[in-house]
Amino acid sequence: MKIRLIAAAVGAAALVLIIVFAPAAALAALIALLSGAALLELGRATGAAKYLFPYGVSVLFAILVPLWAFFEQNTLFAQIGLILYTLIQFSWLMLRAQKVRFEELSGQLFASLLIPLSLLSLLSLLKMGRAYLLLPFVIALASDTGAYFAGTYLGKHRAAGNISPDKTYEGFIGGLLGALVITAVYSVIMLLLYRTVSWLGIIAYGILGSAIGQFGDMVFSYIKRQYNTKTFGKLLPGHGGVLDRLDSVIFCAPFVLLLLTVIPLFE
């Protein structure tokens, strides 16, 4: 647990410094690298990596999507790129129809769209302000931390034993409360930059953001369970790989962006 806590503290501090001080282009590049790293880890976990060409193309696509969205922003070329990507991947599959089954690569192909397109919402949040970009990470980290401690010390009733044996209802509630409290603290701090904060928004972002983030965590726990692996990687001591840390953010970030159109948090 000690290594896990130290790694979390160092990672959180580094994340804040990067989001606050890094140039926008560097943040876009970082998001692209995280997207590619997530696909890299997923392919290794699911076995898709043994098919080097479609595996490599999926990772490259995951990297290029955020970069293209930030630097080019031409929707016509983006649509053409998506069509070409689909044609390349399915052409490879059909040429090897007798040797490669679709389900062996279907998860990688689906994730190569889901992960970068979800992380694109981080670029939209960046354009709205760095306080907004940090928000889904704050919610996800607070939720994960609250769920971890509540589940570890209070957890007695398993919530999804067939997917993740460590998940409990107490942990789920702890995640909701943790996200709610830290979102409120973060919003009060943001009063230094903004005139008003929506208290209804704090409740919505904290509770709903935590719920959708925990759902994302369960989705990737399900994938790990299917392939008998505990983590997607070993990059982060005590936490696994990039995808193990991004699982909640992948679902939480688009939700935060959507919720901002309904309930602005800062004004």
Explain the overall architecture.
With 267 residues, this protein is mainly α. It has one domain. The protein has helices at 2-21, 24-46, 52-71, 75-95, 103-128, 130-154, 169-190, 199-226, 242-260. Helix 2 (24-46) packs antiparallel against helix 3 (52-71), helix 6 (130-154) crosses helix 9 (242-260) and helix 8 (199-226) packs antiparallel against helix 9. It starts with a helix and ends in a 7-residue tail after the last helix. The model has no long low-confidence stretch (mean pLDDT 88).
**Uncertain ranges:** none
Number of domains: 1
Number of E-type strands: 0
Shape: globular
**Helical coverage, percent range:** over 70%
Quick recap:
This protein is mostly helical. It has 9 helices and no strands. The chain is globular.
Give me the secondary-structure topology:
Blueprint: H1 2-21, H2 24-46, H3 52-71, H4 75-95, H5 103-128, H6 130-154, H7 169-190, H8 199-226, H9 242-260
Helix pairs in contact: 1-6, 2-3, 2-5, 3-4, 3-5, 5-6, 5-9, 6-7, 6-8, 6-9, 7-8, 8-9
Throw out a few tags for this protein.
mainly alpha, 267 residues, single chain, globular
